[in-house]
Amino acid sequence: AGPIVEPVSETDEVVEPAPGDEPMVRAEQVWKWFGDSDVLRGIDITVHPRQTLVLLGPSGSGKSTLLRCVNALEKIDSGLLEVDGERVGLRTAADGQLHEMPPAHLCRQRTRIGMVFQRFNLFPHMTALENVALGPRRVLGLPRGQAEAEAERLLTRVGLRDKLDAYPAQLSGGQQQRVAIARALAMKPHLMLFDEPTSALDPELVGEVLDVMKDLARRGMTMIVATHEIGFAKEVADTVAMLDGGVIVESGPPGACLVEPKEERTRAFLSKVL
Ligand code: ADP
Ligand code: MG
Predict the structure, then answer these.
(1) Does residue 81 have its Cβ closer than 6 Å to ligand 1?
(2) Which ipTM score applies to this complex?
(3) d(CA 222, CA 235)
(4) Does the reported pTM lie above 0.80?
(5) CA 58 to ligand 1: nearest atom
């Protein structure tokens, strides 16, 4: 079998980052608690446009919660979180107030962030093409023809040109996940979040989904990826952050973090997943 995705050519469009040199995501001392359990305990991260941050860490370390805060599906309890130039939640030390984004902003914010979960959550009664075209039609108000032409282009890009009319039940897990990625891309996101996108897949289907994600990174998409795929992290990440107990115990370029980790907890984690 050949490569799933066609190589990036000179003429291909590259994802446009937001104007300016502002970070796409800036978190400073972000705290999140549920009841009396602290789930994120002072997270600092910066993700610049066109960069990929890979979040590693054991189950329960806070990876999903952090992604959900970035996507404003959860409110932070303390700290500063700015995504794509807008505040998702802020509590300044100076006034101690939590300044929240108005709901209309939150909605707009979410349409600029694509999220791909472990489970694909495609609509079972819609074809691949319809699943991908739905958001642009409903949320962006694109006419059907235009939304479907764009959906066809994106499904072709993820290697599913011959599956446009297939229903999710007729697709493998890897194919469904690629439809889910195309569906997220159809909203023209500035940022893509992936929460263990290959964890529910049979091992032989993992590669085709990672290939699509690598292609996306090469095209300049800004991404945060929670995964246990160390090979992917080594190849694609600009920065790796190792979470444990709601704290980033180690972060840096993958060459340093994954090859010569300084922290015992990073070494222990890597010895389990490698
Ligand atoms: P990971 O994705 O790294 O496995 P999570 O972010 O899902 O970690 O979870 C971190 C911790 O937060 C876990 O202890 C989990 O039980 C807890 N947690 C996550 N969501 C909630 C919630 N909605 N209510 C209470 N506790 C939660
Ligand atoms: Mg998780």
Answers:
(1) no
(2) 0.98
(3) 15
(4) yes
(5) 3
